[in-house]
Write a structure and sequence with these properties.
- The protein is 66% helix and 4% strand.
- By secondary structure, the chain is mainly α.
- It has a three-stranded antiparallel sheet with strand order 1-3-2, with helices on one face.
- A hairpin with a 2-residue loop joins strand 2 and strand 3.
């Protein structure tokens, strides 16, 4: 089963080398949640009710056997398999009936949202282009910008120009995260108010009807179902309610984690000022402003930062990719890319040798 889950994850959620570089920890947690939902669906799939009903039904012949429903002393002669099949589809709730498929389909939809936005916005083109720029920065690491070969220079200009004329990565990432949050919220509310109430009590959905000791006792996992078959009542049992309930609670915990990560991602996208690179750029800008004030020069952002102002502060796609890269790989890789894109920033990052001393 674990191998089947891994195969599904490998096929549905495989990422290219470029995408992995820009995939932060919160996306990894969301992948883990989806993997968990798939595994839970596979775990409960052998108990799928409508595929092979576990119900066993008997005629209500004793007073009070089926609660307030009337009993009967005459067997109507219905075939036992007809009664089982009829009660499975009539007496059981839809959530219980399709529970394993609800888990699997929910995971597939969460995966599909990400895949759909990648396909519609074609963000893989920008990600691959920026990744090639990162590889170029590693290749020329330690080489003066003036000594770059023509091929690397042309490629750098092409990638930068592509971001100027195509702004799709940030809108795709932001809208996708909002869709994931709201779908996760709807799914959580559906499982909480429909699933939990249905699993706790089949007939009245009254939470007070079930004692807490019965709720956690697996030995009592045989909640009765009262089924009306053309005016004749049957008492049925065999539904693994506690097992489903525990699986559902685990799924709810995973979905809550999913909601927290997507909500924090939305906040981070709206205000990325707390990231590593954002703090570094704020400090860098502050130092330039202090030096400009001391010299009586212009302190506007565009004058101080030069091309970095357009690259980092005016281009949302480049800024988001640089911020994601700083989250996954630290400050060094995004700073190398910035130095590759802007000569002034590259000069600012060069260390100055103030003095040399020889130890005797």
């Amino acid at each position: 089963m674990a191998m089947l889950g891994s195969a599904l994850m490998g096929g549905l959620m495989s990422h290219s080398d470029a995408e992995k570089v820009f995939r932060p920890w919160w996306d990894a947690i969301e992948d883990f949640v989806i993997y968990g939902l798939i595994m839970l669906g596979l775990i409960v799939s052998p108990t799928t009710i409508f595929n092979g009903t576990p119900l066993y039904c008997t005629l209500c012949t004793q007073p009070g056997q089926c609660g307030s429903a009337p009993n009967t002393t005459t067997d109507p002669g219905y075939h036992i398999y007809f009664v089982k099949s009829y009660c499975t589809h009539k007496a059981l709730g839809k959530f219980t009936l399709y529970f394993p498929y609800i888990l699997l389909i929910s995971a597939l939809i969460l995966v599909g949202i990400e895949r759909l936005f990648k396909k519609v916005f074609k963000t893989n083109i920008q990600v691959e282009g920026f990744y090639s720029l990162l590889l170029t920065s590693k290749k020329i690491d330690g080489v003066d910008g003036e000594d770059m070969n023509m091929e690397d220079t042309v490629h750098t200009v092409e990638v930068r120009q592509s971001f100027k004329h195509n702004s799709s990565f940030f809108p795709s990432y932001f809208i996708r995260t909002i869709f994931e949050f709201f779908f996760g919220l709807l799914l959580t509310l559906y499982m909480l108010f429909t699933g939990v109430s249905e699993l706790i009590n089949w007939n009245t959905l009254d939470l007070q009807d079930i004692d807490i000791d019965e709720l956690v006792d697996l030995k009592k996992d045989n909640v009765r179902v009262f089924c009306d078959v053309h005016g004749v009542f049957y008492e049925c049992s065999g539904v693994p309610t506690q097992f489903y309930l525990y699986v559902l609670l685990i799924a709810l915990i995973l979905l809550i984690i999913y909601l927290i990560t997507t909500f924090l991602t939305i906040l981070w996208l709206l205000c990325p000022c707390g990231g590593k690179l954002a703090r570094f750029m704020r400090s860098y800008r502050s130092q330039l402003e202090s030096a400009a004030i001391a010299q009586g020069a212009d302190t506007s952002s565009r004058v101080l930062l030069g091309e970095i102002h357009d690259i980092y502060y005016e281009n949302r796609d480049l800024r988001l990719l640089l911020d994601l890269l700083s989250v996954t790989s630290g400050l060094a890789p995004p700073l190398r890319v910035l130095a590759l894109l802007d000569k002034q920033f590259r000069k600012q990052c060069k260390p100055d040798i103030i003095s040399l001393e020889r130890d005797s």
